[in-house]
Fold each of these.
Amino acid sequence: MSLLVAPGQELIEEQLQDGRRVYRSSIALPAEMPDILARLAKWAEVQPGQVLLSEPGDGVRRSISYGEALRRARAMRKLLADHHGLAKGDCVATLAPAGIDALVLKLACLSGGFVHAALPPFPFRDGFESEATKPFLDAAKPRLIVAPSGHPAIEGMSAVSLGELACDSMGGAAPGTDVDAAPEDWAAIFFTSGSTGTPKGVPITRGMISSNQSAIAAMWPFVAETPPVLVDWLPWHHVFGGLDNIFKVIWNGGAMHVDAAPSPSTFEASVRIMAEVSPTMHIAVPLGLKLLLDRLENDQAAAAAFTRKLRAIFFAGAGIDASLWRRLADFRDSHGDFQILSGYGATEAASTITLSPAPLERPGELGHPLPGHRVALVDIDGRSELRVSGPNIAPCYLIEGRTVPLPMDEHGFYRTGDAGVLRQRTDGMPVFGFDGRLAEDFKLSSGVKVRTGPLRTGLMAQCAPLADDIVISGEDRDRLVALVFASAAGRDRIGEISARIAGWNAANPAGSTAIARFDLATTPADRSRGELSDKGQIVQSRYLRNHAELFEALQAGGGQAPKGA
């Protein structure tokens, strides 16, 4: 069996002239970093009949092979150029969800040098231009919009039907020569998720894709030596699913099996496809992991089918809470021979900044910088901001039709806005850990700063498994108040939640940590109002703005004071 992670990984510390300490991986970035389309062409030649991607169909899954994907992409490229007048550098914006036709369009854009812009579906759901769609269209400036068959944008925005485009190019032939491409050419535009602010367009270059995938394969040799098989539901309008995952599959000659978003109504089909294809890696956000465990923890047959060839479960290390971590670790210990890995990234870094150099010991581990990259921890008002430099960093933002520089410091490091710490594992290896989002911090009226991320993490651990999320408020006020989103297990146990918070206050009595009053949320966060990101996480700043009256009522004596049992 191939190695899971490259052996002997170390975190190398260097000191800049001004005394700043920066860190890099001991693993080198490979010298040869071919274009992603060259990787596709390689696999199309050596394994033309190998399934690249499959999708759900009417009672049977449909699939496309490497050879067919390249042929159809080149035919679609020719159609886009000849019938729609697209030239290298033109933008094609798409509303298409993950699937075969969406893949062919993505690859056609690479073949023709067109810039593929993945639009989020929700603002465009009604199919016409509005204030909600304007920021995305102004940023991307598409020459062509492509939408799924039957989408209202086909009529309301003169979008081209992807089904018709795919059908028209199905039987076509095209020259094998693709457009000349350079690493600095833009390949795609993705939009930031809006977890901490207004979404911004981020251009992704072809060189960013190559460095990202080369670095991942160098740190995690199992991905290259055992072609990845993914059963994947992550949306393609996010850089995680629509760039990193699908290109990880193509880079390493693997297969992606597109799945429906996890829910009680879809998981039976998910279990069947997992049993059929035996995934080698499972990549998910915490919300998906929770639903996966809900389904598999008490079904030994389904769990065995899922883990038969599984090498790793991967999640973004910044987002998992303590109770979910315990469930995941227990599942690992009970099923199969796989490990838990994590990482940390951003749209601005083509998805990935750090990855685990070894299987995780606890939640919150972010790992080591990708090969070829450097990470700095820079003091910001008593906390350390994670900053990164390297070939993965995007050239700019796209905002209101203009290119806007990324927030870079004087040393050329991208300022992530996230706080980090350097932690020591039990094996002695130092790794970066997540310490919250700087944008969520605020000050009480006393001037004392509240570190919202660590506070929320601590409260969530204290209340586990009775709370799914907690929103904390108190900016410019004398005390902290909180709104608790109870889990299914905690909805009828407000007394126990109150006792848990009282216990937290006893151990953390400072004004910047103790919760003076709290209440239970009566409705879930509303995605249509920007309160819930596509990752399933509450956007705290947006929720606080939208529900200011709730928190004012708590400050005025509403809800209840935490009381011990």
Amino acid sequence: MRTAFFFALSLRFALANPLAWHGMHVLERRDTAPSSFVKIGPAPPDQVLTLRLGLVQGDMGGLEERLATISSPSSPEFRQWLSKEEVEAFVAPKPDTVDAITSFLSTNGITSTPTTPARDLISITVTVEQANGLFGTQFDTFRHTETGGETVRTLEYSVPAALKGHIEFVHPTTTFPQTLARLPIATIPIPRDIAPSNTTTGPHAVPSSCASVVTPDCLEALYNLPATNATETSNTLGVSGYIGEYANQADLTAFLGSLRPDLPPNTTFALETLDGGSNPQGINQAGIEANLDIQYTVGVASGVPTIFYGVGSDNQDGLFGFLDLANHLLAQENPPHVLTTSYGANEADVSVPLYQNLCAAYMQLAARGISVLYASGDGGVAGSQSTNCTTFLPTFPSGCPYVTSVGATTGVPEVAAELSAGGFSNVFVRPFYQNIVVPEYLSALGDTNAGLYNQSGRAYPDIAAVGENVEIAWQGQFGLVGGTSCSSPIFASAIALLNDLLIAKGQKPLGFLNPFLYETGKITLNDISSGSNPGCGTNGFPARVGWDPVTGLGTPNFAALRAAIGV
């Protein structure tokens, strides 16, 4: 997703006279800073910057081809996922790239530190004066108009022309700090006491109460999910947490006691932290989002070992810590088989080179047999959360072809939830696995919404699950929440339970889901054919029979999915 070295002599005077350095290639440029930032003036020349250099990766085309083969149900190599070392061999920069970058830095007296297992991302520490010379630019100080916070950025930077084809990006440079959308939406004020309703009228009969209050019992009935405990301890489910959202054990215990009394009341989750993250347990520190994500994984994927990843604010990846977590997992010998994330942003708010690098990281996780699920967003066609717009706003990172984007449904029987974000990426083109269903939808859609979206872009969401009136425990009380951040952990739990069955049979986990879902799995899903996702002054996209950019291919039917994978 989207440096041969012959000018060492000229580099020696680059710092002293960067403007005299001929043959520079502009790598990134923006016309103005975001409207929420104002320029204060040149950054102090002695201020220290930590910059990340993204090196051109070795053979991502080869990795993409290999992934297409091993993720296709029609291939004899289906689900023969790659090892950590095999993936890194594809990704590692070629020797001439390593030599060029090493010479460039050493000539200027700078050392680097690799920050990824494949050594395709490196970190350097320089002063503003050095950075200005190295990259033919002027770093300035900008102030955020609302918070007053200051940041050092530039609107344009260059690299020596001989490094073109060896270096993808330098960060942070033209990418300004952005706000990560926080999901979900509280649809009934919290705190609020709600009496649990966990009585069915028969095997997999959907309780009438599920139309207004969704519990794990409702999900078992709606999606034929098993209540019996998983058996395989090697099967793990990851839940990511950001922006100071903490998962609370006391709330989880209360949730299980009321809504999953068949599970041991001391059921818990493991914790891993990075970027200065933590997970304090003060009841007033419990997060709505983190609690939702943990309660609807631990409480739905019965018995599957669950890991909460607390990602702190000390991240420098320009992508809210998403890339740091991806690289954290890539460095592990045994990362979780499923990762669910309920956060996102609008695609236009992130740097394209950084986005492409993140998507490449997700391709690597996919090749290693990891299912990466993301909530599609809560703004309909108006983005990650409803925004004023004149054209449809695709969300991030649902546009990456190597994640599985999850939209939302509501009600019994299920219809598309209006908040369910969906549409078409402006960065990534349509992947091979969508080449049948998306053109079918576009043909049926006709001229509706013409000119408001990119018809050739990667389409999303891929699938859906319940996303409104979901009951959680929060700070000692119960309440209802809504958003696609409910949908992602629910669908992730279904995948984790299927993985448990596969591993028990000595088979590999489902891994990269999308080719399977579009080729075989689509007939195993509950097709949602009514509703729409309005926004930007329009009715948005209509749901219809087959795939649609509101609910994707549909919601899970566990029994049918289990039959499709032969367990």
Amino acid sequence: MAVSGKRGAKAGKTRHENPLVRHLDAVSLSTKLVSIILVLLLVSGGVIAFAVRQLVSAYIVDKTDNQLTNQAGLVINNIDQLQHADNNSTISGNLYFVQFRDADYNIESTPLVPKLQGSVVSIPKLPASGSLDGIQFGQPFTTDAQVQVGSGSVSRSSLKVAMSPWRVVALQYTVKDPDSGDVVRGVALIGLSLHDMQDTLGIITKYFLVVGIATIVFATVMATIAVDRTLLPLKRIEKTAAKIANGDLSQRVPSAPENTEVGSLSASLNQMLARIEQSFREQRETTDKMKRFVSDASHELRTPLAAIHGYAELYKMQRDYPGALERADESIDRIEKSSTRMAALVEDLLSLARMDEGRGIDLNQKAKLNGIVADSAEDLHALDPERAIRLGGVTVVGTDAPLMSADGKAPEPARLEFQEGKLEPITIQGDPARLRQVITNIVGNIHRYTPEDSPVEMGLSVLTASLPHVDLGKMPSTDTSLDQFIQAVQVASSTGSGQRFAVMQVVDHGPGMAPQSRQMIFERFYTADPSRAREKGGTGLGMAIAQSAVKAHHGLICASETTGGGLTFTVIIPIQEEPQKADTGDASATSATANPSESVRPAKA
């Protein structure tokens, strides 16, 4: 195995070091394709030219053989007339060479010898006198020419004609003897020049050469245009890839019909680029959030630590002065408050870290949402006895139809609305402690940032929405996501099918928040009023923890504007199982919902 690996590495190294291979690798794809096309044309043209030459040559030879065989007797019987013909004319393909030999193959005479212009004589090269050297009778054969040049100038065309090969046939001839009948007298060798064949093949060769050159030039131009046009999408992909390599991830490959290879490649590349861009964007956002998180965490931890350190130093400086005990109690009290705030902050940070890692939450439990909402209402009432708290359900009102109403007014947009009544008993699969923490954090924000006498509504219902294959946990906590869910509820109401969702809504009528602030409310360490948050004990992590807990349940949490002013928190969690009936023995779940018309009212001072 080691030897084989060494051989493979050596072969790969040799290949890369081969100058020819490196030169070929450096040639562009379009040049390679054009070259391949030209090579194929040359090979095809050469094969066709060779086939045509062979076909024409075989045809002329066959025609000459037929002429020799069919006219042999006529030539022998008319030798005297042929001898008186004008032998000084150029061979036209019908002038013969004739030689007689006796029964022992000795040359008797050569009565017909064609002559060319310029006293050039061309005869076939035959076996010596007394031998036929294996020549078969009646079987034509080809032989070279023997040229004899007389005195005077000789033209090149005459020499060319004279050098042409001959086609010769050997025949036995007889004479009729009155006494003994037919008697073999000897052998006649009759030949015809193949000048016509050579001339025809020369013309064909020139024709193919001229046509071949013209075809190659034309094919080169057309192949270059066709290859460039065909490779144009790949060149665009190359330019796009170069821009992407320079850092512009927003570039996309020009689209093409997906039934083609380039179109399929473009679609796949664009899909891949979209995912890469999304991954880079998410990585950048994650990095930015991590940097901001570390910075904010350091800042938030620095404040109580500085207070602890400062009051400790102050106690050391003043412990020898009169009244040191009273000042020590004040310093210890401040140190205790700072440490308590720091402990709460660390606890929140640990909770977020656990949920980010997928730990600290158990989705295999049962959570009674009506009990959680009722308990949270009691907690808020204990914090703000003067606050009016109403319990009930949640329903969708309004329409998304763009048509005008009968009175000419625009229709009311669809929205979730609180309806006072009895809390619906709803049990889902989830972590009750984390879900309780979600509502508790929302209630804590209401206690900290709204007036004590502003009313609060808390609703809980089950709504059916047509959201196939949609994970609410991956949707952003924005008004757009909430609107999409409301539209899905309307679709499900018209079709009668869909998935059931538990919808919790907490509505306050406080000062509310600006739209740009609502978009940041779920970011870590974000507080609309940092000074007031510190006064009330807020860390800026409550809404981030609530969002992480809801997303862990594959749900959605949104903060929207309350009609008339205020802030509305909506929590939507999918129901995996059928809702269970309320447990009549659970006092905590029914303490605030014993009467359908009953609500938590403010206690009198």
